[in-house]
Here is the input.
Amino acid sequence: MFYWHRLMHNPCVIIPVYNHFLKLPNIAARLADLDLAVFLLDDGSSEPCRQVLDDLSKQPGVTLLRWQKNRGKGAVVCDGLTKAFSDGYTHALQLDADGQHDLDDVENMLEKSRNYPLSVISACRDYDEMPKSRCRGRKLTDVWVWINTLSFTIKDSMCGFRVYPLAASIALLAKSNICQRMDFDTDIIVKLYWQGLEVEHLSSRIIYSDEIPSHFDVLHDNIRISLMHTKLFFGMIFRIPQLIIRKKARRGNEK
Here is the structure.
C-alpha cells in the first residue's frame, strides 16, 4: 500500500499572487528546475505584476488563472486546488509569491508528502526569527488551534507553505465554507484535521525582506481571524466526542 501511494503521487505548485512580482521569476525558474507544474493565481493584480505573470505564463508547465478583482488569498487558493485536482494532480504545494518561503525546502516538503500521502505537510517556522509584532499574533492563533482541535498536533497554522492532498481537500471544499482571506490557512488546516487528516511538519526558514510589503491588514484581518476562531470553537464543541476518541487512539498507537 505504501508503494502504491508513492506511485500515485503527482504534485503541482499553486502560488496566490496579489501585486508581489519581484521574486516570481526566480521562484518560477527554481520550480522549473524541479520539473513541477505551476499554477499562478492572479488575485486582481495591477500592472506591472500582470505583465510579469503574462510573461511567466508563456513558459512550459505554467498555468495562469486570473481574476479581475481582488477576492482574497483563500478564495483563489480554493479555486486553484480545484483546478489542479481537475487537471489530474494528486497533491498541491502552496507557496507564497513574496519570496518568504525557502525554496530549498520544496523537495523536502514533496518527499515528506510522498511518504505521508494522506496527510497535510506543513512548514513550521522558527518564531525567534519572526518580528515580534507578527510573532505574538501567531502564538495566540496557535493556542486557539490547540483548543479547537483538542490537540497540540498542528503547529504554526498561519504558515502558507504546505502540501495538500487534493482528494481530501476538494471533498472538504464541497461541504464546508472556507475562509477567503488571511484567515484561510488556519481555517482549512483545522477543518482538514476535523475531517480526519493527520498533519506532518517540516522545519523551514522564513525569509523576510523590507522591500516586499505585507498585505496583512492589521485591523480587518485580525477581526476576520477572531471571528474564524469563534466559529471554529463552536464547531469544535459539536466534535468533542470524536476528537477525544481520536486523541485516545493516537495515544494507544504511540504505546
Observations:
- The mean pLDDT is 89.
- The longest strand covers residues 11-17.
- The longest helix spans residues 218-238.
